[in-house]
Structures are given as C-alpha cells and as structure tokens.
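Sequence only, no structure available. Ideas?
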Amino acid sequence: MIKDYTQTIAASGLTIYDPIEVGDPDLWVPTPELEALLDDQLRGISLAGLALRKRSKVVKEHVCRALGYPVPPSFKKTQPRFVGQMFDAYAQKANNLQVWNEELSPSRRYVILRVDEADRIARVKVVNGEELAQLDKTGTLTQKYQARLVPGAASHELIAADDTDMLLAHVRAGANLAENVSPVDPPAHGLLMPIAELFERLSGAVGRSFPDAGWDQERNRGAVLHRIVCELLGYADYRDDGRFPDVRNQLLEVKLQTSPTIDLGLVRPASEEPLDVPQIAGAQIRHCDVRYALFYAETDGAEVTLTHFYLTTGERFFTRFPQFQGKVLNKKLQIPLPSDFFDR
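Reply:
I predicted one. Tokens follow.
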C-alpha cells in the first residue's frame, strides 16, 4: 500500500502545491497510511548539525521524496506547506508544539516528527487539528465549539430517523461486522448500518455500569464506553486509534456526558467540509454525515451508570443540542504534547 501511493504520486507529475480531492482513492493518502509511510521512510534520518531553518527545509525535502513528490528548489510560504495532502510538518525535540500566526484547522493534518537526543528522527505521528485541540488543557486554542445537552423524560432518543442523503445509498441493514472488519477500518459500501439499526443496538447500553476511574480520567471512562459500543455493534475485537470519528468503520462518534456541556473541539457537527476518509463508491463523506452517539451518565464516585442515550447525524445535531456562541482568539498556540504522544 505504501509503495503504491508513492509510485502513483510520482507518476502523476503533481507537485506538493497541486490540490487533491480529499479521499481520492489513488492520490490522497489517508492519515493512518500517511503516518505509516512517513514513519517507515523517515525514521533514522540524521538532522545533526543543522540550524533550525535549515533543519525545517531538509525535513520537507525528505517528506517530498517519501511521498513521491519532486523536491522544489525552494518552499513557498503556503498554508499549509504541503497543499496537495493538506499538512504541515514539525520536527520536535521538546514536547511543546508551537503553531504561529494561524488557527488550528480541523481538516488540516499535522505531521510531527520526534527528534531524539542524537538528532535523528525517531518517530512520526500524524494528527489533524481536531486531535491536537484535544491535547490543549490551557484553554488558549483559537476556536472551540460547545453545545448543551439537557436530558428529557425519555431515556432513549433517535434525533435523526434517517441518515443523510449522501450516506443512504451506502447503508445496509444487518451488516456483519464480526468478519474481517475492525472498528478503525475505513467505512465501506454495504458495511454501514442504517442509523435506526445503530440506535436499536446501542440502546442496550442504557442501564449498564462500570467502575469510575475518577473525574480526571475521562480518557479511561471513554475507553470503557467505546468497548461497550464495539461489543453491542458486533465487532469481534475492540480497537481505538484516537482518531475522529471513534468508530470510523461506522462513521460513529461516541461521547460520554456527565455534565450538560458537550465539547466539540474545532468541528461543528453540521459542517459540510470533507472528512479524511477514503471515498465510498466515489462519494466523499463530510463531517455532517457522521453519526453522533451521546451517552449521559451519572456517577457516585465508585461507578458510572449510563442513564440516557441520544443518536443523531451531524446534519441534525443542533436541532436537539443548542450550540454555545463565541470563541477564543490567540495568535501563538503552544500545545504541550503528552509524554506518551508518540507511543499511541
């Protein structure tokens, strides 16, 4: 797969400045494959003795070669630098990522290279702006969307009875997810359950309880809920790579709420921007096509109990959950990368 992308891009004659449609089956490199390709090709390269500006240029040259692009004589100051694949590259020796003079973009990818003490590239991670936003605990990020969940009398609510028009042609009732498919696989024609079937299966989570890891362990709470969701959907295994949406194979984002405030990060669910997944039978999926499963829960400090379940499309999200207004502005973003960032 990695060689195919590199060879296809090289044969196309495209440069890093030529735009490519998100999800193009031949030329767009999806984020998981982009990370694997660059990690394989760049790991071990020495940057010793290079000044910061020169190091940045050398890194971009190596990235071009790894992807099959010609190396330009000089790099234009475009946003992002790699227009065709929608990403910027950062070489990091410290765990403090600095993004200057621009907002994080949910659709942009950020290629982050770990440089070790010997000044060699030790690891490459690729995340999008939404994933970076989740790492910021300082509240300084440029734009964060929020909405409000007020539980009603009903413990189960299907807000969107049907999927979006874009998705309807690709869903099929009774899809078997236990055979040769993983929760993190790309969505595929005929393997997407209709939203009504998702609702029926996931409704079984209401009433279930699990040990509470504590208010500061939201990631662990979310992982337990994610396992429950994968089990109810019929997957043979549980996998979570931390990318949006949580269950990519079903275009399903899962949220656990113990308070009314829904954190949405940089992405408005109703956005019609393309989602970084391969096209499905020639159709490019958008953020508004994603299905959102929200579970409201109560905790007594020892156990978390799921009390309410809501399911909607991104398109109809704000018909039930009103959006908060306003945003925070900041020109220089400093994002502390967790110590295990490159190990995830």
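The chain is about 20% helix and 20% strand.
Hope that gets you unstuck.
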